[in-house]
Amino acid sequence: MSAPKQLLIIDDDPDFVAGIKAILVKAKYAVDVAHNPKDGLAALKAKPYDLLLLDVMMGRGAEGIMIARKLGKDPKLRDLPVLIITGIREQMAFLFPGQAVHPHFVNVDELVEKPVEPKLLLEKVEALLQSAGTRKAQSS
Amino acid sequence: MPPNPTILVIDDEEVVLDACTQVLASGSCQVCTAGNGAEGLLRLEEVQPDLVFVDLKMPGLSGLEVLEKIRAKHPRMVVIVITGYATVSSAIEAMKKGAFDFLPKPFTPDELRLIARRGLEHHRLVQQTLSLRREQEMLRENFAAIVSHELKSPLGALQQNLYVLVAELDEQLSPDQQQRFARLQTRLEDLLKLIHSWLRVFSVDINKLKETFQPTALAEVVAKAVESVQPHATRKGISIEPTVTEPLPLVNGDAGSLAEVVVNLLNNAVKYSFPDRPIQVRADAANGQVRIAVTDRGVGIAKEDLPHLFQDFARGHTQPEGVSGCGLGLAISRRIAEVHGGSISAASEPGQGSTFTLSLPAVAAAADSPPSPNSERKV
After folding, report:
1. What is the mean pLDDT of chain B?
2. Could you read off the pLDDT of A19-71 as tens digits, one per residue?
3. Whole-model pTM?
4. Please, are residues B78 and B123 in contact by the beta-carbon 8 Å criterion?
């Protein structure tokens, strides 16, 4: 049995984080949490993670999007898979319900909307980890 | 009044130009002049005046043509026409075309000053209305942001934790308790959906849709919409019967939001239909328009409710039992129709049912669109 995958959640809503962290911990992931962009970036530099769960709308602005942009520019972090969590599809574009805006900030990312059902969350996390693994195997 | 209002006078008679300049410039106005219509239009773009005088009778571009060109490009420009003795009827025609007022020749300096002052005052009010509207627009956007963040986030967190609780307690819950949880989740879900609808109405600049318009086949839109509503209808024992009369011209639009309109209409039809009565969806083309009509045989709509149907938060007074909704579906649909240059209308007979019709302008028949093999097709 391999070591648990290391996940980081960056989201400024502790109650929401509690809700997704419990699901991930139960599925045997090791989960760290940062409640603001600054702590989040520090955590990303302090140790390697397998996946980042990122709230794109923190605070009053799109601070999460700024983090995603920074990741995209950082050669070390560019390949970190990111699950973007959003509650904002309506403000970004006018789209048919069910379709969310997928900004594609980094190489491997996916989008879910708040709130997210446990099954869907785990599926997305698993799929992201796998596609990141495949990518790595191909490039090495 | 702006500190130094600019007035443009367009007239072929130099005497008039001179007189106007003299009279108006003695106030604190800047006056510029043009001796014919074409020059006037050029000057207008240069100086962006607060008020324009145009002589109706000029060689070359006539005053009416100048007026039309100005109004087409600057719908809020205040234009006063100058007219000779016997041309009251043309002055009236000019007013119908959007002139603010008319000034009969010959006029006294006082008459000119008076009418100029009124015109500038009108200009000021128009500008004020515009800035108020912009302010209102900003308030609306801020409101939407607040609704989004302050209401949606806590509800999202609530729902998220409920998901976890249900998963964690799965085995230990009695059927009754499971039901209570399900009820909690449904109500939360409804609230979140309601907030989404609000945001769509208040915050979104629907005109952005236009940026991604594409030639769209409505038959596919109808098929997609029917597919999405079908399960809901089946539960009520209602069949949906679509008929597409080919050839159906393409429309220029956004397939997703057009499907949303049809879904809204179908959902309403299912909602208000009597059980076991079919719903007709007909798509056809006539007079350069493509129409989608949704007909139900349900409770119908009272005459007095019809005019308010497409307003925000409008719902009929006579709601059948168990019907819920926030009354935004039709308002959103109307906006989507309008942004496509189309319209949406309703006809109804209480107790018999209703027909909602979405009309959209057809794209001018393109030579490269393949002819359809069969003329009448069921989707």
Report:
1. 84
2. 999 999 999 999 999 998 899 999 999 999 999 999 877 765 667 778 888 88
3. 0.51
4. yes
Answer for the pair B361, B251: CB distance below 8 angstroms, yes or no. Answer: yes
Enumerate the residues of chain A whose CB falls inside 8 A of the CB of residue B148: 87-88, 90-91
CA distance B237 to B277: 8
Q: Do A91 and B145 touch (CB under 8 A)?
A: yes
Residue found by looking up tokens 């089946």 in the block: B234
The answer to whether residues A8 and A40 touch, using CB atoms and an 8 Å cutoff, is yes
Q: Where are the alpha helices (DSSP H) in A27-88?
A: 37-46, 63-73
In B147-174, which residue ranges form alpha helices assigned H by DSSP? 153-169
Greatest pairwise CA separation for chain B in angstroms = 97
- HSE toward the beta carbon, residue B154, CA cutoff 13 A: 4
Q: List pLDDT tens digits, range B38-52.
A: 999 999 999 999 999
For chain A, what's the residue count?
140
Handedness of CA B69, B46, B6, B82 (dihedral sign): negative
Q: Into which CATH architecture does domain A6-139 fall?
A: 3-Layer(aba) Sandwich (3.40)
Nearest to A94 among B152, B153, B257 (CB): B257
Contacts of A117 in chain B (CB under 8 A): 163
**Measured in whole angstroms, how far is the alpha carbon of residue B350 from the centre of its chain?**
28
Report domain extents, chain A.
6-139
Task: Please give the DSSP secondary-structure letter assigned to residue B304.
Answer: G
Q: What is the ipTM of this complex?
A: 0.74
